[in-house]
Amino acid sequence: MDEQTKQNYIKAGRISAEALEYGKSLIKKGNSLLETTELIEKKIYELGGKPAFPVQISCNEIAAHFCIEEDDKTIFDEQVVSLDLGVHVDGAIGDNAYTIDLSGKYDDLVKAAQKALEESLKIINVGTELRQIGKVINETISSYGYNPVRNLSGHGLDLYGIHTNPTLPNIDNGDKTTLKKGMAFAVEPFATTGPGVVVEKGTPTVFMLEHKKPVRSPITREILKEIETCEGLPFAKRWLTRKFGAKANFALRELEQLGMLHQFPPLVEVNKGIVSQAEHSILIDDNGEVIVLTKI
Ligand code: CO
């Protein structure tokens, strides 16, 4: 990895962490989810980064991939709120997440994911097997009396690639693949009061351009141009409706029909178990030094 790329990862990680801290300060009873989401996205730009994906604020049994729409009036009340955000600097990504319990009832659940992340960081090094990370996460979360979400996992980070290899499991899945120099990745434990499985549920509001095909309609072409500025990273329907109004819905439908989009519907715990999440991004540089990119 060249020095510039390494510095971009470090910068993206720092901005990501600062934006997360800022976001945490806004998650308070009475504040609106929509306004909070948009303030955080604005902050990312102000700090000199770009969103690597739309800011996600997933509540209660929603584990991930909830991204608010423009007309949603939800306010923070008694939810368990997971804030997950990523920042990129010239494609180098820092991804991190934190959960805040506004109900006052799930303090331990929040701690379980947080502690699992801390324990996994202790063993992360060149040569660590992926299964060992999953084992530590599972054991830590179980020691609090909760379950890890077994079909969600940490992931590799590539330039302009948010969910690449390797997959870092939240249980011991037997994968003996080892961590290597030059790898960037995110560790992402989820703890839940439920059985620990998520399913896709609800309407997707986050998409990614997956295949390029010729498009006829001028409206769709105009919106496709905007989507292409995301350089293959996920984008929010809200970003388009804010700018193009109803035309955006038309274009998204057409792009879907053409099979050009990957959709990310909300991921919901199968038994409506409450979910907490913690996440850091890590870079192992060419000298084998482990850098936690999103720790400030
Ligand atoms: Co992530």
Description:
The protein is an alpha+beta fold and 296 residues long. Helix content is 34%, strand content 27%. It is built from seven helices and 17 strands. The strands form five sheets. Strands 7-6-8-16-17 form a five-stranded antiparallel β-sheet. A three-stranded antiparallel β-sheet has the order 1-3-4. Helix 1 runs antiparallel to helix 2, helix 3 packs antiparallel against helix 4 and helix 6 crosses helix 7. It is globular. The chain binds cobalt (II) ion. Cobalt (II) ion (CO) binds next to loops. Cobalt (II) ion binds next to loops.
What key phrases describe this protein's structure?
296 residues; alpha+beta; five-stranded antiparallel sheet; 7 helices; 17 strands; 34% helix; binds cobalt (II) ion
Outline of this structure?
This protein has 7 helices and 17 strands.
Shape: globular
Number of alpha- plus pi-helical segments: 7
What is the β-strand count? 17
* Secondary-structure element order, N to C: HHEEEEHHEEEEEEEHEHHEEEEE
The largest sheet, given as strand count, sense and whether it forms a barrel, is: 5 strands, antiparallel
Percent in strands: 25-35%
The pLDDT mean sits at 97
Name every ligand kind in the structure: cobalt (II) ion
Radius of gyration: 19 Å
Task: Give me the side-by-side strand order of the main sheet.
Answer: 7-6-8-16-17
- Percent range of helical residues: 25-40%
Uncertain regions spanning at least 5 consecutive residues:
none
Cα separation of the termini: 23 Å
Sheet/helix structural class: alpha+beta
